[in-house]
Write a structure and sequence with these properties.
- The protein is 36% helix and 30% strand.
- It is an alpha+beta fold and 96 residues long.
- It has one domain: Alpha-Beta Plaits, CATH 3.30.70.
- The protein has a four-stranded antiparallel beta sheet with strand order 2-3-1-4.
Length: 96
């Protein structure tokens, strides 16, 4: 069953974040992930619980594959760039 990584990001340093984006994409793909959305236009039709900033949606084969990517040794230094230049909420959710 597919699993999805949903990331809501508030970018603090747009120039530095471009480096993160350039490095992250090939690693997502290396780990079998597919970008389904990456910071596109949003239409928030109901915002009672949270107000999203910038949404990224990744699809992986299953929950374990998503976790393996997020915890992988090759992603750790790239993730550090994200941590230094953005605030994020990351969720992994099972597909149906």
């Amino acid at each position: 069953m597919s699993a999805y990584v949903i990331v809501d990001t508030r970018i603090k340093d747009p120039d530095a974040y471009e480096q993160y984006k350039a490095l992250a994409r090939p690693l997502v793909e290396k780990h079998g992930g597919i970008y389904r959305a990456r910071g596109g236009d949003m239409d928030v039709v109901q915002g009672e619980l949270w107000s999203p900033t910038r949404i990224v949606l990744l699809e992986f084969a299953d929950m374990q594959s998503a976790r393996d990517f997020l915890d992988s040794d090759d992603y750790k230094p790239v993730k550090a760039i994200r941590y230094a230049n953005a605030e994020c909420t990351t969720v992994i959710i099972d597909g149906i």
